[in-house]
Amino acid sequence: MTKKIMVLNGPNLNMVGIREPGIYGSTSYKDMIEMIRKEAEKRGVEADCRQSNHEGDLLDWMQEAYFQKYEGIVINPGAYTHTSIALADCVKAIAPLPVVEVHISDISKREKFRQVSYEAPYCKAQIAGEGLQGYVHAMDVILGK
Ligand code: CA2
Q1: Which residues of the chain have a pLDDT value below 50?
Q2: Model's pTM, two decimal places?
Q3: Which terminus of the chain is less hemmed in, N or C, by CB atoms within 10 Å?
């Protein structure tokens, strides 16, 4: 059976490419997902890509990845990065399943509130500022490449 990586996107990430192209680029969410799926395929894995504006969905899906024995999780939690202790607890709870946090923009160079990540301390890595390639880089981290 093909190995699976779960690729999660949090609130508003379905809007990339539509607004704020200076920060998030001009590629649509649909095209971004297509690129991630193709890159996963090249690596012999399936990217199971999901997006939600609801925190609980992200928690349910992370737990699902754990129980269904995915290879790992790539997650851009969007603004929940900076607010959610529940997401941080979840990353901790599903250890040792590798979770890699991705941000399209370089959050270290943005507003102070974006420089805080509650889950990053429990993640295998945090990748920020690499644009959409950050998702591919994150899959490689999970695959040990
Ligand atoms: O840089 C990232 O990937 C972020 O996770 C994106 C989040 C933001 O809240 C984080 O601080 C950094 C925002 C998601 C996209 O929001 C949009 C807002 C307007 C137009 C298009 C997207």
Answers
A1: none
A2: 0.97
A3: N
